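Workshop exercise sheet. Pairs work together: one partner reads the sequence aloud, the other fills in the structure field after running the prediction. Swap roles for the next sheet.
Pair: D.N. / O.F.
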Amino acid sequence: MFSSFYRAAMAASVFAVLTGVSYGDSGSTEEMVVTAAPLGDVLQSSQVLSGEELMLKSSPTLGETLSNEPGISSTYFGPAASRPIIRGLSGSRVQMLSDSISTLDVSDVSPDHAVAVEPLLADQIEIIRGPATLLYGSSAAGGVINVSDNRIPEATAEQLFGGAVEVRGDTAAEERAYVGRIDGGWGEFAYHIDGFRRDTDNIDIKGFATADPAERPAGENKGKLANSYSESDGVAAGLSWVTSQGYLGASISKLNQTYGLPGPEEEDGGGGDPEIFEGPFLDMEQTRIDVRGEYRFDSGIWESIKLAYGNNDYEHNEIEPSGEVATEFENDAWQIRTEAVHSALAGWRGAVGFQYDDRDFSAVGEEAFLQPTSTESWGVFLLEERDFDFGSASLGARAEFLEHDNDTLADYDDTALSLGAGLGINTYADSEAFINLSYTERNPGAEELYSEGAHIATRQYEIGLLAVPGGSVNLEKSTNVEIGWRREAGDVQWEVSAYFYDIADYVYQDLTGAEIDDLPVAQYSQEDAEFLGFEAALVLPTGNIGLANSSLRLFGDYVDAELDGGEDLPRIPPWRTGANFLLEGAVWQSGLDVIYHAEQNDISSFNTSSYTMLNLNGLYRFDAVGFDWELFAKGTNLLDEDARKSTSFLAAYAPLPGRSFHLGLRARF
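Structure field:
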């Protein structure tokens, strides 16, 4: 822990010296919106959730919070572990960020590992694709999810003491959640404090957890997903020094999570230790230190320079029902990145930067399927944009060197090069047609190279690319094309886009048909693959109903993914379509969602049936006793569907929650 504080202090000191920030500066900055794109709109397809919309959509996991957004699905390893999937791409191809720095967890290693982010504490969640993803490494080839939480304030505070508290609960999981935050400051200093606690019980489901009656245990109870409970809590504090030309701040946070791992019961065979818990569970702790700063120049070629640093002490234990620790995971990681924005040169304004990552990962125990691995990477990146009379254009490039050092298998190192370009053309009624082109190279992750053993969470015996005699590996190379048309202002808004990803040496798990230790063998392999899909959304005003305004949003998405030989890939989302009807008055709003998910039988994993989600929500704002209040309620899965996600390793054993009613109250002061 001392080395973590030492590196954080050094990063802050070096930044202060390089930027020339002095205590003589005074004044305040305007409130800035945190964004993962330093130049703002760089033609990327993006979605942003914030404010009341985020409050109503917030779920216990980041994956489920975003899973109804166009182009987004989730891994859903039960209600406590769910990672976002973007356009069918998952795992290490989708980067999770906390205020533009990696979440530094191990959610990319296995689907039962939770993302170390609490959605209740988020101010804003951004979904970014296109050229801007080159800022964050080859592992962001599928896209970027950036969660902003204001733990390091970037602007001076309007008052010494302010904040918000919230309580919420639901019926399907008997959720009890409490969250609070304090934001304030004095003079040139601003601070932030937050904390939360969330407890859930085993969730209610429509029918039986096990889909196949022939596989269903005789004692399985209908209507409950066994071992799906969770407990989590966390605290954080941050302090910033803010001047008229920038800020420098730091934060420390602590996150604890304990949750059951649902799925089929393991056969004991007799003679084992007595079970004192309902099933296997995961117990996680993370302590994180962050430093961020920005200096804005008065004049010259450089507009600003930013520094971001994150250090993570992460560990979790996977524990058997007997209470015995089966596997201990540790992930000591840190990341530092800096980016400088330059003013227009020959009409092009841009950002250039550097990023370094260091990660020591280990899994020790009888169920460890991945040997300890140290990973280092460094990358340089460039992003440029220019406005023209007809529209705008952007260019991006990144070079990244990565090295894996495994304790028992061959080391790996290679350099990945990536390029991106975007063009936007002004069209009818203040709309824009756009095209994004990119070529990305991705270094495989440690789990894709070095897995070798029984992975109990996925019920597979996994073998990595370098874990077989004479194994070899190539960079994963993807050529991507996206075309679209959008209008983001006015009463009628729309966005439609189609994309094609041609991926050479795509890394995937090939079920060979063999078995080891009664588990199917999943061999990591490489073969060319193609992803083809579209997303569309249309917002229409539907007139006034009494004193309320109303609007209708229609949307749909689709992705088809297969290998060049025509074989289907596993865990790809089905096509879906839906409608959102919004009714909004001066102090209240109400929404109705209907989302149809088609059957999915074009995948090599468990096939799922179609289902329709009917959701209803409402919110009322009022002032009382000196506080601004928001009372909100929602009903989810009101049709009580037996719904299963084709993207889940547990699709055959863990359906989504059944009908549930949610109630919450937020007070701001």
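Discussion prompt: Helices lie at 2-19, 51-57, 62-66, 446-450. What would you look at next?
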